[in-house]
Design goal:
The protein is of the alpha+beta class and about 425 residues long. It has 10 helices and 23 strands. Helix content is about 30%, strand content about 30%.
């Protein structure tokens, strides 16, 4: 069956399913389930519920992916026992889980299969879910550390700040300055790995070079650490290439710069980014901030932040603190796409998982993750259901370095089969 899991994953990867553009994937999955004579429902948010019989267990995954690099043009290759994608994100988060569920459907297991939409852009599908689930237990398949049982996750929100800085005339020469192809990474699980933020690296360089900006763009997705940033600047002489910063002569003639250019660069260089506090007991960040996207054009600026915290109270405090800092720079501030934390709690489901998985994996323990899992929202929508989350080993999701360990997929799928057999 493992061969079929990989086969279906490759098939899924050939279908465009970037967050916000998932229609083709949804049609494919609905058709697949209907051909196997499952009941299929699709709600207004594009979530899919596939069901047969009166199951006690619901398997859940999301079917959108973070598209970075060349994605959705995904070219998969194997390297040293890992699957990767050439110059793009891979989509193992969460496509490998969907492939596992497809094999279980082929085996005619009487389960609920819940496939949510647009998880990667604010858990949109989970927030709008409109199904009555029959199961007593929900197993999410969206974690990335094999053998571990996740029973808690961070809540999160996005902050968007904007301001019209204005422009002033300037006749000096223009230059294109860029930082490209930094490692990037997941703004939750990778935020404590000292991955450089391309936006702040570029802004600090521009301050040192004493140049003025015409425009500045950086970052790829709100839930990714910025891997690329570029600016058009004006200076008496070309900035000096160093520290991975590239400089090119600008072919177009710009006649202005941003007003208070130095203040803008100092703001972006000094704004907080990274881990704010740590949960010593769980050995993960308790709260964090990701300076995700910056866009400054024609004197108008916008900053997108992603925030995460392991408790709702901490998240609200973090929103207030960051908003206050941005307001000091006379920016308008709004909070978007807030989702709740999932407080860790052991249950009959998680204990049953532990009994099964400790026999199969060298390390097996209860964990919480500094990232959003849909269990946080689903536990509020379905308070009667016990929930937990497992998954195969995936490294560097949300980046062109994403990879999934093939043997780990096999071990995780074998464990999933045993879990399913014990609950049907």
């Amino acid at each position: 069956m493992m061969d079929r899991v990989l086969k279906y994953f490759v098939e899924l990867s050939a279908i465009p399913h970037c967050s916000g553009a998932t229609d083709a994937m949804r049609e494919y999955l609905v058709d697949f389930a209907e051909r196997l004579d499952y009941e299929v429902e699709v709600d207004g948010a594009g979530n899919i519920l596939i069901r047969r019989g009166t199951p006690s267990l619901t398997l859940q995954a999301h079917y959108d992916m973070v598209c970075v690099g060349r994605a959705p043009d995904i070219e998969i290759y194997e390297e040293g026992g890992w699957l990767r994608a050439r110059d793009s994100s891979l989509g193992a988060d969460n496509g490998m889980a969907v492939a596992m569920m497809m094999v279980l459907m082929e085996e005619r297991y009487e389960l609920e299969y819940l496939l949510s939409n647009d998880e990667e852009i604010g858990l949109i599908g989970a927030k709008a879910l409109d199904f009555e689930l029959r199961g007593d237990y929900l197993l999410n398949l969206d974690t990335e550390e094999e053998g571990q049982i996740y029973i808690g996750c961070a809540g999160g929100s996005d902050i968007v700040a904007s301001r019209d800085f204005g422009v002033i005339d300037d006749g000096r020469e223009s230059w294109i300055v860029s930082v490209e192809n930094l490692p990037g990474g997941h703004s939750g699980v990778d935020i404590d790995k000292n991955i450089p933020n391309a936006i702040q690296l570029l802004c600090r360089y521009l301050l040192e070079e004493r140049v003025d900006i015409v425009s500045l763009e950086g970052g790829e997705r709100r839930n990714s650490i910025a891997a690329n940033a570029s600016a058009i600047v004006k200076a008496e002489k070309p900035p000096i290439e160093r520290g991975g910063v590239k400089v090119l002569e600008c072919e177009r003639d710009y006649g202005h710069i941003c007003k208070d250019s130095e203040k803008i660069l100092r703001m972006l260089s000094s704004l907080p980014h990274g881990v704010i506090s740590t949960d010593e007991e769980l050995a993960i960040p308790h709260s964090s901030l990701n300076l995700a996207i910056v866009e400054i054009k024609e004197g108008r600026g916008r900053i997108d932040y992603s925030l995460r915290a392991m408790s709702d109270e901490t998240l609200l405090a973090l929103e207030e603190e960051l908003s206050a800092q941005l307001l000091k720079y006379e920016m308008s501030v709004s909070v978007e796409d807030r989702y709740p934390a999932w407080r860790p709690e052991k249950s009959r489901l998680s204990r049953a998982l532990h009994d099964i998985m400790r026999e199969r994996f060298t390390s097996c323990s209860y964990r919480a993750i500094h990232a959003g899992l849909e269990c946080g929202i689903l536990s509020l929508r379905y308070p009667h259901m016990q929930m937990a989350s497992i998954g195969p080993l995936i490294e560097n999701p949300h980046s062109t370095r994403e990879r999934v360990n093939i043997e780990s997929v096999g071990r995780t799928f074998e464990a999933l089969l045993e879990i399913v057999e014990s609950f049907v």
